[in-house]
Amino acid sequence: MVIPMGVTVKDILQLPSFQGAKVLTGKSNLSRTVSSLSVLEVSNADFSSQIVNSVQEEWYAEELVISSLFSIKDSVEKQCETIRYLHGLGEVGLILYYVGIVIRELTEEVLEFAESLNFMIICMPENDYTLRYNEVIYEVMEAIVLNNQTINDNFVNESLEKVTLLPEHSQSVEMTLKLLSDRLKASLILTNKNLQIVNQVMWPRNSPLEVSQMIRDYAPQLVNSGSRTEDRAPACFIEHRGIYQKNGEVLYLFLIKEQSKLPAKTMDKISEVVQVAINLWGDKHNEVSEYALVKAIINDESEKMRRLAQLLHIDVSAIQMMWLVYLQDLSMEKHVREELEEYLSKYYKTAVIQTIDHCIIVLLGNCSYKYNEYEIAAEYAETTSFLASISEMVYAPRMRNTLDVRRMYQLVNQVGKKVHLIYNHRKLFTAAEIRSMKRAIDLSIQGEEVIEEWMSAIAPVLNDAESVRTLATFLLDAKGNLDECARLLFIHKNTVKYRIKKISELVGYDITVNSEFYEVYLACMIYRLINS
């Protein structure tokens, strides 16, 4: 049986206000649920990017954004940047107004970029001055409100299925609470048995309610006797249920709704959803440890992260560097972690080192000023006793906040094992190289026309296997170093130098100059991906 998933994109496209609208990209999202709309219009293009990028602790898994992109109408780069930010926030897609009036036309580059992210762009009828945002807003929100008025028998399955449709890194207890909060327009708080807050999702998100004080006031009677007390704040109604972890420990789920009270049956279904989420994703959910802290960071559990950081006396704002050390197998994990702890203690005052799956996540801060941080990572990669156990290592500097940490971790996992198809002889990679690899992977699956366009940068040498091998080895494996390239190809340095000069003349780029070879560099990545 197909479970109803609420109001979907396909449903809203049937509304009268969407007549003549076209889905340009991300058509596989037609079955995605929509629970809210948001308008993105500001007067300054740079500020637009800041607004989108500043939302660091939310995941808008069921939201569509309405915009004409007026502030960035003349910048293809900023349009792609905004799409990337919106996709990173989890937005379903963009409803684009006034194409042909504000934006003259959407470029192929923007469309290809959105499609590579599977990000939906719905184009409202072009060259139409009569379009109004409020028509779509009213009809879509009316459909959503009507759908949300009833909690049907499929509510539990529907809610959990929505979470499982999210990317794996976003499947968590806190994400479940966020989806429930949006659906019910209520605040949800999960505490441990001592009534310390583990997760907190407010409705609205900027709600000034002092929920910790409210729980302290009401919870003792509720938890100990099960009897209800008269609410001291008549405008707020509180319900609670016990949620049990696999180890038998109890957590308490509190629902706080302003102005109106939810039926007891609804609270039962909500607690059932949260109970299943705890069973699936919340093992030792109230554990206080560095492992739990790192897990909360990469799973976007913001409230839990803040609570754990405070209890562990770790200043997460001091984290500015991340290493990701991926292991072939876990048999040597304990030894690798101990070696990392000993090695890094010489250079960093803040170091959190924990293993998630096959990856040792290293979060670092407060480096001694006299050391070059990349050289610290490179030296470790060269001197570690466990190099054979390490499949790859990523060096990611300039982590401004935990959002950057989470995004880089996700990006590296998206690249996955394809890193070894692109780089044949290396194990240490920078964050910039990971971003380039992701771009090459996206380009390599966009069809023959796009591939041919990018491969044109090295077309003059494509029929010469020796030249292609030398070029790819020089740029990718040897990082532009003639000596290293010669070592990897088992030839003399002067031979490499001669070949590189000849290749540069043929392709029309000086591939020994960084500012000139980026297109050739990407073309080499794509070549290895499609010929591996």
Automatic annotation (TrEMBL):
It holds the Pfam family HTH_30. Gene3D superfamilies: PucR C-terminal helix-turn-helix domain. Residues 468-525 form the PucR C-terminal helix-turn-helix domain. Residues 11-144 form the Purine catabolism PurC-like domain. This is Transcriptional regulator.
